[in-house]
Amino acid sequence: MGKKSAKIFAVMAIWLVMITTNALAGDKLPQLGQGITIWFDTGGPVGGPYNTIVQNGAMQAASDLGAEVKYLYSDWNPEKVVENFKKSMAASPDGIVLMGLPGDDPLAPFIDEAFNKGITVTCVDTGLPATLQKYKSKGFGFIGTDYDQMGTSLAEESLRRAGLKKGDRAMIWGLKRLEDRGRRARAMIRTLKEAGIVVDYIEISPEVDKDSAMGTPIVTGYLSSHPDCKMMLIDHGALTSQTENFLRTAGIKPDEIFVGGFSLSPATATAIENGYVDLVSEMQPYLLGYLSVAQIVFTRKYGFTGLELDTGGGLVHKDNIGLVAPLANKGIR
Amino acid sequence: MKTLYRYRFQCGILSLLVGLLGLFIHLSPQTFLHSRIYIAFMSTIPFAALLALGLTLLIVAGELDLSFPAIMAVSGFCFSSISQATASPVLGLFGALATGSLAGLCNGLIVVKIGVPAIIATIGTQFFWRGTATLLADGLAVNLTELRETALHHILVGRLFDCLPMQSLWCLVIALFFWMILNRHIWGDDIRFIGDDITTATMMGVKTDNVRIGLFITMGLMSALASVMVCLEMASWWPTQGEGYLLIVFAAIFLGGTSVFGGQGTIFGTITGSIIIGILEAGIISGGLSGYWTRLAHGLVIVVSVSVYAVALKTRRT
């Protein structure tokens, strides 16, 4: 082969490679969610620690799938969930994701209307059992966990780890006044009482609910009037994250009292590392956002039925906090 | 006797505080006869009290600020982000104070120069500053545990002699300063004149615009300072910071005898009101009652106190 022929052969080979590569690139699968619009009610307030993680998951799914997602905020207010749902319907999106805070009955007529209009609806965090039964085949799903089950499992695991005996005293700080969310606190009270534990229940006031700094004198007051308290279960993410400050002020040393709580945050991770919080149960809110967007896309694209997924059961403690803590800083766990 | 009559409201609210403490000691002696609960109170009440001090001056001048919880959030965010970026919490403190002053100046200009009523203007700015903080923070809380060992932490919220929370000393110093301003300085007279009747105050030569803008800036500064202290005490910043203070700060001020119509108010009353509001919940819970009683007790104490003031001051509109 002459030099000229060799050159021609080389150019042809390169051209062939380029053609093949382009063809393969053309075979790349398209993003499934392109052209699909979803209105997503994150449930909580703008910047709320829990619903921001839900939103982060939804944003990742939107980016991965190419769907367009618009976010709404309900300040954990059931009336606002209904109001946001009506607003979402007015925009005629392909799908709506909501948190079932108001319950089945108040939402039923609007969800009926949405499905009649051809909008796919699905639900996260708080379930709507009757709606799920009615519309599961049309794509209505539930991603989250049962509050009762979540409370029961945290209480059972805490009892196991803390080694409390019949007649020992424990404090539960919760939000029993909230209809569905309060099921978690009620489940913890029930589980501890069934185990023969003396339970003191304290309701979280709306002020402490918003600004956890105000919880300090309550913990100090309670612990000094009940020095025999061996366990505290806190049904509130922000308060769990401030446990270290509460106990420091109350003069309690690390690991002196067993503390269990919910939802991970950077401050909670530090409190676990420092021995002030022993066990944290999380609903893995990132998955709520990600999977609900994926569910709507799958239903719209391929007609899949609604998914029922339990994301609860994630327990964070001293042994696995090293792995989880960096993710808490990024708003993923 | 004449002096006692002059200070009858102060004596009244002090008696209420002493009475409540007596009741709590009776209900839960193991808690209220121990220093620990008072240390806890001294670590948390100063935050609300600092806000109440700034707001008292505004209310005495006949103005209002509903945006201070949001100013707390945005100033606190500035503090946490500057502290983390520069590893200097002192720079963070100055950043927060500058942010708080700027936010206060904005409120002042909108109310005084543009003429929007304070209640409407500060509702708008509270949405704006809360939104700014959330947007900048991307909705995420900031962990500040690394600031626990810094000099600023020890100076602002450390424990003097390993027990006395520094924030309570700062609060006391600032309360004394505000008392001096309100009672021993010409600015205090100006504030009261403006609150009584702004037209007369203007005719008397009071620079009403400057005083009112100054008061909004002071409120912004107090919000920023309270926010930095909360961030340091709790070793974290969160996007909803400040929201829980709105109602209790107003409750403390009105419980302390400050008139909603302006022109009247005392620093002593505000501090005592802050203490009463701050100890109620812990007292109720330590006494063995459920937390459900807290709001009922708050409501009862506030309604009875302000009714007594209304009768004494004959404020009923006829």
TrEMBL record, chain A:
Superkingdom assignment: Bacteria
Compartments where found: Cell envelope
GO cellular component: cell envelope
Main location: other
Keywords: Signal
Signal sequence interval, chain numbering: 1-25
Parts of the chain that traverse the membrane: none
Periplasmic binding protein domain boundaries: 47-295
InterPro entries referenced in this protein's UniProt entry, alphabetically: Peripla_BP_I, SBP_2_dom
GO MF term list: carbohydrate binding
Family assignment from sequence similarity: Belongs to the bacterial solute-binding protein 2 family.
Protein name per UniProt: Monosaccharide ABC transporter substrate-binding protein, CUT2 family (TC 3.A.1.2.-)
Upper lineage: Bacteria, Pseudomonadati, Thermodesulfobacteriota, Desulfobulbia, Desulfobulbales
From TrEMBL, chain B:
Topology versus the membrane: Multi-pass membrane protein
Chain ranges passing through the membrane: 7-25, 37-61, 68-87, 93-115, 164-182, 213-238, 244-261, 268-286, 292-312
Keyword Transcription regulation: no
Pfam family, one: BPD_transp_2
One GO cellular component, as annotated: plasma membrane
Alphabetic keyword roster: Cell inner membrane, Cell membrane, Membrane, Transmembrane, Transmembrane helix, Transport
A molecular function (GO) term: transmembrane transporter activity
Main location: membrane
Compartment(s) of residence: Cell membrane
Keyword Membrane annotated: yes
Database matches in InterPro entries: ABC_transp_permease
Entry protein name: Monosaccharide ABC transporter membrane protein, CUT2 family
